[in-house]
Amino acid sequence: MAVGEKQPITSYHLNLLKRSGILEAEKRGKWMYYRIRTPKVISLIENADEINYLSIRKDEEDRMFLREG
Fold first, then answer.
1. Which residues contact 28 (CB under 8 A, 6 or more apart)?
2. Cβ count near 10 (within 10 Å)
3. How do the domains of the chain map onto residue ranges?
4. Average of per-residue pLDDT values in the chain
5. pLDDT band at 69, cuts 50/70/90?
């Protein structure tokens, strides 16, 4: 999967996440496959995404209010 970063940078960050216990990895041949270790991490990501969405929406509403005001 392409992530828009160079391979060494991506590998470095994936390794950090693995060492921190967020990801687990499995080597198959010359490839490493990563997966999230626990559903709690997925829940955390979903919550952070929702907070980010609400923050962006509030910023947009504030800008609309200022334009109309």
1. none
2. 14
3. 1-37, 38-69
4. 89
5. low
